[in-house]
Amino acid sequence: MGEVLDLSEAASSKLLDAARRLFLAHGYDRVNLERIAKEAGVSRQTLYNRFGSKEAVFRAMLQRHWDQLNVSAFLEELNGPGGVPEASEVLRAFAQLLLRFVRENDQVDVIRLVIAESRRLSWIAEDFYRVGKAPLLDALAAALDRLSGLGRLQCPDAFVAAHQFFGLVQEMTLWPAVMAAPAARDHLPAEERVIDEAILTFLSRYAS
Length: 208
Fold this sequence. Notes:
CATH class of the largest domain: Mainly Alpha
Helix content: over 70%
Mean pLDDT: 90
Distance between the termini: 70 Å
CATH topology of the largest domain: Tetracycline Repressor, domain 2
CATH superfamily of the largest domain: Tetracycline Repressor, domain 2
Number of helices: 12
Order of helices and strands: HHHHHHHHHHHH
Oligomer: single chain
CATH architecture of the largest domain: Orthogonal Bundle
Number of strands: 0
Low-confidence stretches: 1-6
Largest sheet: none
Number of domains: 2
């Protein structure tokens, strides 16, 4: 009797966990459906029936990776019963959300993988941005736009401002790790200080 196809969320998670381990360890080209199926303990046909191709597996893996970043919770805080928080609180919540995601979800390794593979396969970088970074920037831009509407900020272009704050937070936290620069990492300030300075710098430009 053949293997029963399990289309449950738990089964998909098991397959994507296996794919993630292999892609991060070996890159895109050196992984195939047979190898993913073996790692997950299922048949190749089961994997094929669920996803159809290696590209589809990789896309689903990226989507699942970014799903761990709860952007909706960040936006819900703006509509909580206590009203819209102050601009500094919104910025701090966003920065902490971003850096917690980086720490807990192998973001450094995923970015390295995307950079390495996108030179040949541009859709990898496009998907990485489309399903993850773009919604994150959109969420921050929406928050900044709302704060501007309330007179708490003056952001003539909230999308540009969102990119700027994103850069202020990541330049001294994420990118030294991505570049594997121990000399730089050894002299970096603590994350909370990076966040404090990013907020002060941002508000010096955009505070109303």
